[in-house]
Amino acid sequence: MDIPKDLTEKRKTEHIRISLEEDVEGKNITTGFEKYVFLPNALPEIAFKDVSLATAFINKKVRTPFLISSMTGGTETAYKINQNLALAAQERGWAIGLGSMRAAVEKEELAYTFQIRKWAPDVPVIANIGAVQLNYGFGADECWRAVEIAEADALVLHLNTLQEVFQPEGDTDFSNLLKKIENLAKELAVPIGVKEVGMGIDGDTAKKLISAGVSFIDAAGAGGTSWVQVESYRSKDETRKKAAEAFLDWGLPTAESIVSVREVTKEIPLIASGGLKHGVDAAKSIALGADLAGFGRTLLHSAIEKDAESLHLQMDRIEFEFRAAMFGIGVSTIQELASTKRLFKKS
What we know:
41% of the residues lie in helices and 12% in strands. By secondary structure, it is an alpha/beta fold.
């Protein structure tokens, strides 16, 4: 489908507005983290001040196990959001992912909205392209251009099948993508990851992606933003708007996605995103097997403010909650949290 490039910008603007103003969370489905509880340790034998959040991701040391999940870019508003997020990521030691960069690759004058390295020189930056674009004219050159624009440490390909189906101008040919992902992983000089956008990745799919040479996976499970619902607000097609109601509980919950992926591999770096609300959710995700915990729309309202103070306060709260959870079970490092036996599934 040949979409005029200005429609891509219009779509991104609408995505920001809808995400901020409308109820776009899935219904009758949760992240699954509420099914897990930590066993408190009344005698932790550690000092709270010694609890460390330091870890590493894609061979880069980071001060925290947190990721600002891929959200936006391609408009002036998105540029300001990305600037605020990048400055906060640098100051606090969070990795940061960018929204889909198709607009910047197709339209050079939009590249600046993704150029955040000057504000985040030391943290991992992840560029982002829709995997389906490999069936619509994108190849290694276009993907590498996205990496260059962002001066990124890695590229993530996002899988968003149902979003594209419900999107008025969606690209829906997902055929034979695995081989193209495999070829791309061989050609690009940076790690290639794959992420969902809120429906989750299961173990079988993860196994195929790993065999294709993917370097990391972002589970991006259900329980947070539903992009089917976002697109239903944009659609003027009454059939699709009504059909979106049938998908309110669609997806693999984030906690289940982490467990499913870890059942097939213990080695590949895994990001847990999709509906995380606070630091305790993040701590549970690491204890379940994730390496990083991603926060997206949770941060968006704060990131759009001219004064970034509220964004820093929110990130500070997440870090405090996470550190307090670690202290509460008696672990002082991310490695100890990852191997804890103090996380249980409720019976």
